[in-house]
């Protein structure tokens, strides 16, 4: 994946006294080890901090994007990021609330490590005075024998404390129970923090608040083994104001990989943000200043029909993840679907993504009469209804009005040699694929 987002244009809001105050305003602090100490630490000399990403899928998703942007904000404040992609923890997976994870093969996990490292690289700067560094916990766990692991690390963990961690406790009370494998996950994550403390002087770990038990297993381990105090910061889990789960669209996770979630689908997800959620999303997912976010919030309240907040949110986050060029293509595709642009300039992939949710039908090259197309697509339920639509001026093919009920669409009008976009009236759309 190319380095698409423009890191040079990103900066923290100078209206805040320090980065901690900005993180608080953005709603990114849910739980932390010691708020007063952390603020002092982050306002002082550069520190090294880390966040871990496990390769339990071939792409990161929106929950991970929250962490990447927290990391970037800290880097913009002068601190030094370590991006950890968990080659070893990814072989186990942290305990989910409901059931055991499917264990992936070592080859699959190794492949996914590469994908995730590529994604992490796009959100952090690896140049300048405080460049990011990539680390993989397989480097220090692979050489360790089971005996050494138990003697050097395991002896510092108390089973009673481990059992009380939320992720473990909820699973212990479920029908599924929890395996020793997943139970051990917090020890591995604690060991990561200890290793990074020893190797880099790492003094802060960030993550989602659902990871708090794992985050604090590291701070406790360092306290016991090294006698030093280090920090953890847990961001809130993002939920929609109506109680539905954030980051899902039609039952699918919103992935950062364009092959798993097209830029068009990604953009539409943000565009469909509820008014009640727009300001919170702008705070978390964009680098807009407080003044800019507040102005958009006012617009959402006073002119909700204009959807200025949603449009700005969709543009900013899609540009951040997929680049400005891809975002502009998506906006052009949205406009073209409803007659405000030239469909022929859309590349095939964008066209397919933009029309993926529409009713569709496949016809052969002989069936290109406008009446047959309207019926085949489902836009008209009979030939007589289709004739009526054409007669009333409501039939369009590729945004061009068709007024003759006997019209036959020519082969050279097919988009990318095989597609047609049909429209009845202003808003009823369908696609036709012409088979060879």
TrEMBL record:
Domain of life: Bacteria
InterPro entries registered for this protein in UniProt: aa-tRNA-synth_I_CS (IPR001412), aa-tRNA-synth_Ic (IPR002305), Rossmann-like_a/b/a_fold (IPR014729), S4_RNA-bd_sf (IPR036986), SYY-like_C (IPR054608), Tyr-tRNA-ligase (IPR002307), Tyr-tRNA-ligase_bac-type (IPR024088), Tyr-tRNA-ligase_bac_1 (IPR024107)
This protein's record includes keyword Ligase: yes
Cellular compartments per GO CC: cytosol
Chain residues that bind L-tyrosine: 50, 185, 189
Motif ('KMSKS' region): 245-249
Localization terms from the record: Cytoplasm
Domain Tyrosine--tRNA ligase SYY-like C-terminal, residue spans: 352-429
Pfam family, one: tRNA-synt_1b
Catalytic activity: tRNA(Tyr) + L-tyrosine + ATP = L-tyrosyl-tRNA(Tyr) + AMP + diphosphate + H(+)
Residues involved in ATP binding: 248
Motif placement: 'HIGH' region: 55-64
EC number: 6.1.1.1
GO process annotations (BP): tyrosyl-tRNA aminoacylation
Record-linked Gene3D superfamilies: HUPs, RNA-binding S4 domain, Tyrosyl-Transfer RNA Synthetase
Keywords per UniProt: Aminoacyl-tRNA synthetase, ATP-binding, Cytoplasm, Ligase, Nucleotide-binding, Protein biosynthesis, RNA-binding
GO molecular function, one term: RNA binding
Subunit note: Homodimer.
Function: Catalyzes the attachment of tyrosine to tRNA(Tyr) in a two-step reaction: tyrosine is first activated by ATP to form Tyr-AMP and then transferred to the acceptor end of tRNA(Tyr).
Family according to the record: Belongs to the class-I aminoacyl-tRNA synthetase family. TyrS type 1 subfamily.
Protein name in UniProt: Tyrosine--tRNA ligase
Gene encoding the protein: tyrS
């Amino acid at each position: 994946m190319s380095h698409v987002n423009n890191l040079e244009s990103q900066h923290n809001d100078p209206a805040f006294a320090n980065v901690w105050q900005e993180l608080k305003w953005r709603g990114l602090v849910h739980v932390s080890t010691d708020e007063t100490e952390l603020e002092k630490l982050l306002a002082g000399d550069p520190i090294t901090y880390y966040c871990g990403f496990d390769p339990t899928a071939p792409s990161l998703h929106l929950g991970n994007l929250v962490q990447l942007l927290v990391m970037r904000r800290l880097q913009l404040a002068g601190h030094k990021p370590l991006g950890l992609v968990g080659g070893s923890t990814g072989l186990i997976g942290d305990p989910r609330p409901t059931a055991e994870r499917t264990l992936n093969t070592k080859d699959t996990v190794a492949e996914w490590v590469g994908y995730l490292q590529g994604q992490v690289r796009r959100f952090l700067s690896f140049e300048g005075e405080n460049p990011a560094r990539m680390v993989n916990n397989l480097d220090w766990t692979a050489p360790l024998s089971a005996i050494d692991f138990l003697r050097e690390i395991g002896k510092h963990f108390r089973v009673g404390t481990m059992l009380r961690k939320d992720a473990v406790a909820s699973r212990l009370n479920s029908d599924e129970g929890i395996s020793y494998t997943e139970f051990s996950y917090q020890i591995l994550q604690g060991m990561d923090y200890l290793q990074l403390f020893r190797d880099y002087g790492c003094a802060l770990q960030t993550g989602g608040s659902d990871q708090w038990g794992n985050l604090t297993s590291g701070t406790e381990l360092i306290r016991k083994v090294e006698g030093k105090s280090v920090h953890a910061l847990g961001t809130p889990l993002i939920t929609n104001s109506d109680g539905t789960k954030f980051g899902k669209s039609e039952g699918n996770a919103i992935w950062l990989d364009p092959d798993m979630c097209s830029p068009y689908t990604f953009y539409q997800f943000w565009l469909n943000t509820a008014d009640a959620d727009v300001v919170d999303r702008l705070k978390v997912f964009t680098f807009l200043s407080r003044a800019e976010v507040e102005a958009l919030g006012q617009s959402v309240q006073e002119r909700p029909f204009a959807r200025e907040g949603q449009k700005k949110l969709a543009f900013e986050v899609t540009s951040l993840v997929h680049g400005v060029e891809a975002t502009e293509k998506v906006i052009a595709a949205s406009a073209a679907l409803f007659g405000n642009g030239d469909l022929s300039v859309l590349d095939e992939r964008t066209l397919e993504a933009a029309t993926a949710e529409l009713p569709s039908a496949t016809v052969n090259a002989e069936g290109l009469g406008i009446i047959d197309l309207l019926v085949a697509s489902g836009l008209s339920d009979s030939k007589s209804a289709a004739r009526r639509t054409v007669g009333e001026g409501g039939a369009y093919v590729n945004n061009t009005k068709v007024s003759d009920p006997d019209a036959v669409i020519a082969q050279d009008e097919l988009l990318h040699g095989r597609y047609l976009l049909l429209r009845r009236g202003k808003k009823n759309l369908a696609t036709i694929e012409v088979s060879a």
